[in-house]
Amino acid sequence: MSGYIDLQVNGYAGVDFNSDHLSTDEVERVCRQLKVDGTDSILATVITAPLDLMLQRIARLMELIEASSEIAACIRGIHVEGPFLNPADGFIGAHPASDAMPADISVTDQLLDAGKGTIKMVTLAPEMDSDARVTRHLTNRGIAVAAGHSDASLDDLQRSIDQGLKLFTHLGNGCPAVLPRHDNIVQRVLAVGDQLKISFIADGHHVPAFALRNYLEVIPDQNVVIVTDAISAAGLGPGSYKLSGQVVEVDDDGAAWAACRTHYAGCASTFQQMIEVLKGAVGVSDEQIRQWMITNPVQLLGAAQAECG
What we know:
Strand content: 15-25%
Structural class: alpha/beta
Radius of gyration: 17 Å
Shape: globular
CATH superfamily: Metal-dependent hydrolases
Strand order of the largest sheet: 1-4-5-6-7-8-9-10
Helix content: 25-40%
CATH class: Alpha Beta
Order of helices and strands: EEEHEHHEHEHEHEHEHEEEEHH
CATH architecture: Alpha-Beta Barrel
Oligomer: single chain
Number of domains: 1
Number of strands: 13
CATH topology: TIM Barrel
Largest sheet: 8 strands, parallel
């Protein structure tokens, strides 16, 4: 089984896509390693940072995609995660709260201009997008809009879905460890799980296998997407690694922790390691894995392009 498509890769095999000094050689090396690991293509993910740095990082990735056919074949576009995220503790996760901001069309256009057509997905918090104007703005340009790092109400979610929201990013993460027992972001997203796709980080750490099994039982197979949320540590084992200027510590068991040890900061697992979790502790079939890691990501990106108006 091969040809997986990963919609959320912050870095891989020792290379941080949020570095300010990416070289062609190191990104081509990442692309080769991804192929070895069975991943056909990815969206390189740029996370929240000061806007000027986000613009520089997007522009650099765009240049690399344009300059190298090997990179272009692997990196099918850019996923911008932020800066329109909920800045509250827990919801903001590993993103710097000081750089989060309300969704703004002018800032959105700066991000899109820097990408020159390479941005394929944007993750934002619906409650930060007044009247879902930015969601519609992006949807009209053929860009898949995802919700994430969010405490959106059901009304917020439905308003965004009505304006083109396609995905919820890594459900069960990007939220506080302690939540109200019934009315919380996980339950709200599950309540609309028939209307949008939902991605999960299936490393066994971000969502325990028993909880992931429960989620997967109530979401239609056609709406499940598996992502790695990989950082530069992916596939390298325990140690200290970089993510957009932060230091991330990877434990012996493969969990990637922020320096404060209160939350995970990306993921150090590969798709192959996640398949072991999915087929083992979670108990899913090869057919489901192919749908969640190939068919559904392709459909998501294709549907966004089809809506371009």
